[in-house]
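Example 148.
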Amino acid sequence: MQIKKIDESFLNELYKISQMEFCEESYSFKQLEECLNNKDYICLGTFFNNEMASYVIALETVDDVNILSIATKKEYKNQGLATSLIKNLMNYATSNNKSVSLEVKSKNAVAYNLYLKLGFKVVSKRLNYYKDKDTALIMFYNLQQYYQ
Ligand SMILES: CC(C)(COP(=O)(O)OP(=O)(O)OC[C@H]1O[C@@H](n2cnc3c(N)ncnc32)[C@H](O)[C@@H]1OP(=O)(O)O)[C@@H](O)C(=O)NCCC(=O)NCCS
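Predicted structure in complex with coenzyme A:
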């Protein structure tokens, strides 16, 4: 398995995974295209030979790396791929003195457990945030600079 920056030749595949995993909540093709072409976004994938099995898209700002979307293809789930992608971002953020942030639906137990396992902490909640009235949990890793 290799972790690589996603280039535009994988845009169709990226959109396919996003559609499969997020359905109507998926980013549009155009939004994903913009992410791949904007240097403020970090777009990483895990690859087996030339097949992309999972991806993460994050927006880098001056003090934070904000994970916007992460998904793993069905047949590759539970093999540690999302963990590897997030750890890659965590290492990058730590060595650049940045936090890592994300937002997750409280009912998304798989994702929530994964983030907890990696050391993310819930710092705030947005009640009734989603269309289905679920709560958004705002989670951070490496937020210590705010407490100094
Ligand atoms: C969330 C997602 C990206 C995880 O991808 P993955 O590559 O399978 O994740 P990993 O194999 O690295 O991590 C597996 C971890 O998920 C959690 N998990 C997996 N199945 C679970 C279950 N049935 N119940 C609770 N937690 C579970 C565990 O923490 C597990 O770690 P463990 O095996 O050490 O216990 C993937 O399930 C996915 O694409 N989901 C749909 C899109 C989505 O919800 N994205 C996140 C939006 S915030």
